[in-house]
Amino acid sequence: MNATTAETAVVPDDLIEVAPDILRLRLPMDEGIDHVNLYLVRDGAGWLLFDTGVDTAHARACWERLLAGPLAGGLTRIVVSHHHPDHLGLARWLRERTGAVVYLRPEERHSAEQTALPTPKAMDACRHYFEHHGMPADDASTIASDLLRRFMACDTGFQSQSLEHGEVLHVGRYRFQVLVQGGHSVAQFCLHEPQAGLLLTGDQLLERITPNLSLLPWGDRHPLRHYLASLEQTAALDLRCVLPAHHEVYAGGVARARGLIHHHERALEKFRARLLPGMKGMDVATAVYGRRRDVLDRFLALTESLAHLQYLQEQAEVRCDADARWYPLPHTVSSTGALPASLHLA
Length: 346
Hints:
Blueprint: E1 8-11, E2 15-19, E3 22-28, E4 35-43, E5 46-50, H1 57-67, E6 75-79, H2 85-88, H3 91-98, E7 101-103, H4 106-115, H5 120-132, H6 137-152, E8 168-171, E9 174-181, E10 188-193, E11 198-202, H7 223-235, E12 241-244, H8 253-274, E13 279-280, H9 281-289, H10 295-314, E14 318-320, E15 325-328
Parallel strand pairs: 5-6, 6-7, 11-12
Antiparallel strand pairs: 1-2, 2-3, 3-4, 4-5, 8-9, 9-10, 10-11, 13-15, 14-15
């Protein structure tokens, strides 16, 4: 199967066939990337859904129309790749609307719950984390009191099941091997169909952009290390058709995985070159990415910088002191790779 498979319109602008018995549903998003791709795999009389979309009135209306029309067979199962709102957002509503079984890793559910900052103590700890890494107090307050809840929080008030790495998921004509991969999120599901060379990849292997890797107080404790390992794993697969969460279906997944490894190798060179002794994480983020125009961009720049700095710490190239200041190290100095205890949140 090739990514050049002709895309036949089923419902204009919403639903197209991208592979035999696989439909892509594209839903709009208001922030960041302007869309998300969801995939439906024929599953008997109904469909397995991979990811759910952001919970908006427009998205719910689209689903109502589709479930009353071309998807009238209903949803049998829902696989949520990870906890970000364009993937998890509508899981509860769709489960209640269709009765579908939802698959979500428990680590992802925990990350979603932590992102919601459910208590004043959690909000204070979040604010302290970002201030400790050099973010201005106003930005840190905005992140803890508004940004995370508004852009990242999802409803997790539903039952779900999990899947294990290496498990085989039988869906219609396909036999998907479950991959559980870290980096962009703590335990993201990808589904690989070796006979067809298909990969449902969520955000893990995007063609046009690199997924954000964030070191946060919750979630993946070693995002860059785990992401690079996942790319090595992916590069060893038979990939002829990659079905990503954003932009178009594409071929060349192995080359893209190798290219993303090279991208982060180049990024690490920038961090090595621009880190000066005693810099805070926010200082390093500004040195590498420049001054960002809004708090969301500064949040992403800081958390991505921390992920790269931590990786260099694991390689015994830098150290971080109790005041969250970073220092280059001679290559002969060893390091545990762990952040000081004061930088972790309960």
